[in-house]
Specification:
This protein has 264 residues and is mostly beta strands. It is 14% helix and 45% strand.
């Protein structure tokens, strides 16, 4: 275990770009959905609208691993979500803080302590989207922690219902096709997948190991595959607290000497 930790510390400076990319990806996957416009447009299916609706606060401890161009194994993290605000900490061995993220619907801050840099701005900035390793916008990836689908839910149509209360929703467009598999009895998103117009997989997210926490069904295993399954990210939650957090400030201090990049 000690040898693994030492190797981790030695590898981190060499893989700082991957760490920053991973943090940006995590930011994209935990940004929160905006309420779709109703007006004269049709309402989304009630099974989709209920996803994540019972989660008002969330505390998670776990690990994240990646395979593909770069590999991390069991990088520990913890995250606190209060309504539409969240703070996430990526930890190293012996309690070392590798990075922190603070995010609201219209702003974010990433602090990479290992490389002494800060990235901040708008999560919907076009320039930030261009740096994402996944061919989707930041807003499109708003599902990880609270199990929500991205974008306007009214675009989805029911396609099939199986005997196990799992319903398949589909979106067909000129850009490709989207699939969402929803467990309507547990009100949990089981899978989201997107393929481009050529049928090539752009993104696949599966939500597994669902457990009841304080009356709410919460997936404890989230697996993300992209780039036609050449790149993978796996989140494993070891401790989850739902709707028991008191109101608290999630803001943290930013070292003034760190370099900064801003996305608008």
């Amino acid at each position: 275990m000690i040898a693994h930790d030492v190797g981790y510390l030695q590898a981190m400076p060499m893989q700082h770009t991957m760490l920053t990319t991973l943090l940006t990806l995590i930011l994209s996957t935990v940004c929160f959905s905006q309420t779709p416009t109703v007006g004269h447009k049709r309402l989304p299916d009630s099974a989709l609208a209920r996803l994540g609706a019972d989660v008002h606060s969330l505390s998670i401890e776990g690990t994240v691993s990646t395979t593909g161009n770069q590999t991390f194994t069991g990088l520990p993290f913890d995250v606190v979500v209060v309504e539409d605000t969240m703070r996430m900490t990526m930890n190293g061995p012996f309690g070392v803080t590798a990075a922190r993220i603070y995010a609201e619907p219209d702003s974010f801050v990433i602090v990479n302590y290992l490389m002494r840099e800060v990235i901040d701005g708008s999560p919907n900035a076009p320039s930030l989207a261009k740096e994402m390793p996944i061919p989707l916008t930041v807003t499109d990836l708003q599902m990880l922690l609270r199990g929500k689908l991205p974008g306007n839910l009214a675009r989805f149509n029911r396609s099939d219902k199986r005997n196990d209360d799992v319903v398949l929703f589909v979106v067909n467009s000129v850009d490709g096709i989207e699939y969402a598999l929803v467990d309507t009895s547990k009100r949990v998103l089981r899978q989201y997948q997107r393929k481009n117009a050529k049928g090539i997989l752009e993104l696949n997210i599966t939500f597994g190991d669902v457990r009841n926490v304080n009356g709410v069904e919460i997936p404890h295993a989230v697996d993300i595959a992209f780039d036609d399954r050449k790149q993978n990210i796996a989140f494993r939650f070891t401790k989850v607290i739902v709707n028991e957090l008191e109101s608290t400030s999630l803001i943290f201090q930013i070292p003034p000497t760190f370099t900064r990049r801003t996305f608008r």
